[in-house]
Amino acid sequence: MVTEQDLHIQVDLQRQQLRLLSGNRCIENYLVSTARNGAGECQGSGCTPRGVHRIRLKIGAGQPLNSVFVGRRPTGEIYTPELAAANPGRDWILTRILWLTGLEPGRNRGGSVDSLRRFIYIHGTPDSEPMGQAASHGCIRMRNSELIRLFDQVSVGTRVDIREQF
C-alpha cells in the first residue's frame, strides 16, 4: 500500500520527464517541458532550478480542466484556441498549480536563488504546447489531465528533486 509519506517526485531535465515514485518504485511517468533557458537558480534567469524542493502549496483543487490562472488565482476563463489568439504571448498557467519551495539554502532557498520567490511551479499548459522539449519560462509544464492525476496523489510537503539527469 502506498502512503503519502512514501511518495516523492523526480524531474529529469535532460529527459524532460517527471516521475512519481513510492520508495524506489515508479508509479507514474510523464513527459514535461522545463525551461527553454536550461537549468539555473538565479532570479530573472528564466531557468528551472535544480536541487531538492517540496510542494509548498497546492492551488486549484476543484477547478475545471483548462482553468486559467493569473497570480495563482483562477480568472474564471477556460483556455481555448480562440482565447489564445486574442491574447498572443500570454504565458498560460492552467488547471492546477503545485508551487515549489527550495530546501537547500544558497542553492534554491533564500536570496536571489529562492524558488518560492521565483514562483516556480508545476502547472498545466495548453495541449498545443510540446512536451518532452524545454520550452517554459522556468516552471515545469505538464498536460492538464496528467497534472490533475498527479495533483490528486501528492500533498503539501511532497519532496520534488530536480536534477539535470537521474
TrEMBL record:
GO terms for biological process: cell wall organization; peptidoglycan-protein cross-linking; regulation of cell shape. Gene3D superfamilies: L,D-transpeptidase catalytic domain-like. Residues 7-163 form the L,D-TPase catalytic domain. The active site is at 123 (proton donor/acceptor), 139 (nucleophile). InterPro entries: LD-transpeptidase (IPR050979), LD_TPept_cat_dom (IPR005490), Transpep_catalytic_dom (IPR038063). GO terms for molecular function: glycosyltransferase activity; peptidoglycan L,D-transpeptidase activity. Pfam families: YkuD (PF03734). Pathway: Cell wall biogenesis; peptidoglycan biosynthesis. The keyword Glycosyltransferase applies. One of its GO terms (cellular component) is extracellular region. Keywords: Cell shape, Cell wall biogenesis/degradation, Glycosyltransferase, Hydrolase, Peptidoglycan synthesis, Transferase. It comes from the Bacteria. Belongs to the YkuD family. This is L,D-TPase catalytic domain-containing protein. It comes from Sedimenticola thiotaurini. The lineage of its organism: Bacteria, Pseudomonadati, Pseudomonadota, Gammaproteobacteria, Chromatiales.
